[in-house]
Amino acid sequence: MLFKLSSRIIKVNHVSQTIRRVVSTQPVQNVIELQNNKYESDDYFNLTPKILSYLDMNLHFKKHHPLSIMRQRIVNFFYKEYANPKGTPLFSVFDRLSPIVSVNQNFESLLIPKDHPSRAKSDCYYINREYMLRAHCTAHQVELLRSGLDNFLVVGDVYRRDEIDATHFPVFHQVDAVRIVHNDKLFKNNPDLEIFEKNFSENVNSSSELVGSSEKCIDQVKQPCHTVESVKLMEYEMKNTLERLVMSLFGKQLKYRWVDAYFPFTQPSWELEIYYNDKWFEILGCGIMRNEILAKAGIHNSIGYAFGLGLERLAMIIYNIPDIRLFWSQDSGFLNQFNEDELNKNFKYKPISQYPQCANDISFWLPSELNFESFSLNDVYDVVRSVGGDIVEQVTLLDKFTHPKTGKNSLTFRIVYRHMEHTLTQEEVNDVHAAISKELIEKYNIKIR
Q: Pick from 305, 227, 317: which is nearest to 278 by CA?
């Protein structure tokens, strides 16, 4: 792709305070440089300086970090679970792939329809209409399949615009996996059986038809192309493998259940829930891969399964970590509680922050051209994160109000501040709160009430 260079090129490998101010007040830049590549921005550009500061942090490699420990435990499990007769692991691991992907990789290649809500600008971080920060590690699935791989794990940071509370953060880490089995191996003991129905013929000439067909994949028995025998064999292997995985993490006495689910890129699909500390938790999503994806990647006469899970969710449950912001802490009081030398030990986090909360409310009128439906709450959350940083613990929408006479729309939020390492003064909080209000006024032309 040919990039048109402008007089202002913004480098964000290491974002300076000056650049932070420039980017935060100008929603659209001509050219932006990310990881030594230049991209033209357009009306879809919605990256904030705070989000850009997380690129290349690679918490899943940080020594003794709980996310790195979780990564190693999962990789080690698959190395042991799947190996050839010589003991060589069958699964390849890709944990340094760039989080910058094309929109096609993130959506079209996975048969996600054009009108699917996950594509919304209010839900994803876009560089422009063609490139974005990956919303899931599944975005690399097709490119790795086309390279000839049939068993692989992808580990990395993913980016989604989301609410602000103790369990949500715009950056988190995923493990995504794929296993492909050829007909000869699947039915080596029953050579008369086949993966595909006899009347099935692969026709993948129209990619647009494939994307549009995702909404039809609601049959929890099988895809029309597959035989029942092939699906049941793969389902059995997949579920048994994932059950052993979670038991290796949580203990052999773990109580679990399978729940039917829907994903555009697998059919049938399931979520695995575990019962831990008297609560049910959804741990991962999985399913039989859509054959259209395999066919487009040049893989024939084969069937596969895929799954994805979040490292933060696992670590928060296993280690009793109460706040997702802690994973980004540089405090030795947090990091020193974990040790890679005891990889399989389920450490229990001891709180390091007993500092009090400070809560301030903000209420504002929307400009006349916006209403509750057209104004994205994630825009507010991004501003709060960009200005308030990690001292913001939670943002809650308290009230929506429409004036009965003027018809103006008003929103009220409560922002809870708490520093993980020292007590915040009300004066400090007021300064940050005022800066948030100023940024909202400049970016969205709101009027403080």
A: 317
Q: What span, in angstroms and rounded, lies between the C-alpha atoms of 371 and 136?
A: 30
Cα separation of 425 and 443, whole Å? 27
d(CA 381, CA 394): 10
Give residue-wise pLDDT tens across range 149-205.
999 999 999 999 999 888 899 999 999 999 999 999 999 989 999 999 998 876 544
CB burial readout 403-429, b (16+ within 10 A) else e: eeeeeebbbebebbbbbbeeebeeeeb
C-alpha triplet 250, 253, 259: angle, nearest 5°: 75
Measured distance CA(50)–CA(24) in Å, rounded? 9
In the numeric block, the tokens 């922050």 are attached to: 353
Q: Return the structure tokens found at 104.
A: 């096609």
Give the residue from 155, 70, 67, 72 showing the smallest Cα distance to 334: 67
For the stretch 79-132, pLDDT in tens is: 999 999 899 999 999 999 999 999 999 999 999 999 999 999 999 999 999 999
pLDDT digits over 381-421, tens only?
A: 999 999 999 899 899 999 999 999 999 999 999 999 988 88
Closest CA to 159 of 23, 34, 54, 262: 54
Exposure string (b/e) for 301-331, b if CB count within 10 Å is 16 or more? Answer: ebbbbbbbbbbbbbbbbbbebebbbbbebee
Residue 44 and residue 332: Cα distance in Å, rounded? Answer: 39
3-state class of 125 per DSSP?
coil
